[in-house]
Amino acid sequence: MSKLKTFTKEIKKVLIANRGEIATRIIRACKELDIKTVAIYSEADAKSIYVKKADEAYLIPGDPIQAYLNYFRIVDLAKQTKCDAIHSGYGFLSENPEFAEYCWKQGIVFIGPHPDHIALFGDKMAAKKKMRELGVPVLPGSDEPISDIKKAKKIADEIGYPVILKAAFGGGGRGMRIVREESEFEDLFKSAFNEAKKFFGRGDVFIEKYVENPRHIEIQIMADKYGNVVHLGERDCSIQRRHQKVVEIARSPTLNEDVKRELYRTSVKAMFKVGYENVGTIEYLVDEKDNFYFIEMNTRLQVEHTVTEMVTGIDIVQQMIKIAQGEKLGFLQEDITMRGYAIEFRVNAEDPKRNFAPSVGAITSYHSPGGPGVRVDAAVYKDYVIPPYYDSMIAKLSVWALTWDQVVNRARRALDEFIVRGVPTNLPLLRAIVRDEDFIKGKFTTRYIEEKLPTFN
Ligand code: ADP
């Protein structure tokens, strides 16, 4: 732990250092807690919904992406507007340890874990090392970033093919390559390196054993400042496109109960031992024989937190704020009950006919689904113009029901109700998924979309 001392104080006003649906989500949590909100927005976001929902909103002129990254400016604004705390959502500054530290040093509560934990888990190799020390299974791999191709190849030979290359200083599936045999290594290393360099400024990669047909299972953790750590169950996020999540499910309808229990126990124990606080998600791959391996930890609110909220009834964003202001968790592990199943669908403005390239422009018609068990976290409305600078996710549809069969039926009904016109979206893909026999049976691995896509059209 560094010397940085964090503190607690009553949170009466929060600056939201983010945009889009997650800014709205945080504003909603604050309103229910009677906390005032300050939004920031770029020129491109002047007509966004969250700007109108906040109590105060300030334009950050200039570059549309830097508006959400320039933390000196953002913390200054928080001070000027007399905010007690900052919530940074996901993406942008949410996993930047320097930003979190700067908030604390300027007297602003950073709603999240200690900056040291953000730094530790932000370095995937250091995180794996730490988790291995704590008794969590990890995959064999390199323990440092590699830029030298000969060195990389030697490590791959030692691990044994297939291996996966990942950007050492990045994420979001960028710079990832699966190398099935030695002869492909050089070409794939070069393309991973170049892609990582293009996106993250550094091309270094790390190498890991590739797991065939895994399921991506993650555990939601919540911890207060007094050593109380609980889990809120698992999410199955296996349904991905290009290593990016598309559909997320709480609870896993098929994972063996003993494996679930072991995942919960391992995750809670590890977080207790590191002294983690606030919320976090530990991501694992589960192989065909039900062995699980830690791959990474996210030290922030996740996009897919909605499904955990639906099955537990716990408002994760409100809990984050309460923990940050020094409250004890108001419940024990045995008080948390998981009821039913929830599925989240990421509705993306992307064109299935152009290999899912992001689509921009005006939404000419918009109708969001409703009715029992349906939740929509959206960033758009009729006549909203999607700007070209940001992530393509325009809405999250989350549905809940008591049984798996019911939730699938409800998902089908809600997806059919959803109308977005003017820009192409991935809604046709989502509708095809909920009609697929294997999905209905709960049979999916991280290769699901890749394998199914050709049969969907
Ligand atoms: P990112 O930070 O870029 O999202 P992750 O390490 O979380 O990267 O992995 C994202 C996805 O990539 C996983 O959910 C999984 O589908 C795939 N993946 C990552 N590591 C492996 C591995 N060792 N074997 C098989 N698939 C993997």
UniProtKB/TrEMBL annotation:
One of its GO terms (molecular function) is pyruvate carboxylase activity. Residues 10-454 form the Biotin carboxylation domain. Its EC number is 6.4.1.1. Keywords: ATP-binding, Biotin, Ligase, Nucleotide-binding, Pyruvate. Residues 128-325 form the ATP-grasp domain. InterPro entries: ACC_Biotin_Carboxylase (IPR051602), ATP-grasp (IPR011761), BC-like_N (IPR005481), Biotin_carboxylation_dom (IPR011764), Biotin_COase_C (IPR005482), CPAse_ATP-bd (IPR005479), PreATP-grasp_dom_sf (IPR016185), Rudment_hybrid_motif (IPR011054). Pfam families: Biotin_carb_C, Biotin_carb_N, CPSase_L_D2. This is Pyruvate carboxylase (Pyruvic carboxylase) (PYC). It comes from Sulfurihydrogenibium azorense (strain DSM 15241 / OCM 825 / Az-Fu1).
